[in-house]
Amino acid sequence: MRQFVVVGHDVPTTAASISLDDLPGAGRLDLLCRCVATGVFLSHGIRDRVRIHLVCADELTVSFDSDELRHLHPDERNVAARIRDALDAKADAIGHMPADVSPGVELRRMGFEATIDRLEREGPIVTLHEGGDPLVDAEPPADPVFVLSDHHDFADEERDLLADRADSRVRVGPKRLHADHTVAVAHNWLDTDGFTAY
What is the DSSP-derived secondary structure letter of residue 94? Predict the structure, then answer.
């Protein structure tokens, strides 16, 4: 299983605040939608055993499970509509029990720390950050939980938590990339067993 946690610092936590005609204006929801699409889709297909977790304003987490997804398309509006549906269902999320939004999409009342607490039992936490060690020098881990931020850097509390909990901190290249491009590079790294097998 590959998992990606993407922190959306400014994403609204109410469905009414999201307009499908202005996704950048909804806390750069367009970027998070591209992370979901890049994370779960292949050309003319969908990846097996991938989960994407979007942490919204350190309050809610929307998760996409590629093995369970149905009728999701890779365009930003389609993904955003699922996120909006998830936020609309938050009354059904009780404690840390998820609200089932649609096949393969869940919403939990969990912020960043609670999401990391839940996922660190499932695989090593790998922070993707420009200040990390070069990806090419690292060994691809089994069942990684990659953690990356949106267009903002990690907040101080997030950075401190990751410094304490992450098993490693890596950068995907010498240039700063968009979050969705970073997801693509991380996938390629694992697909090629550390860029050694094509």
Answer: B
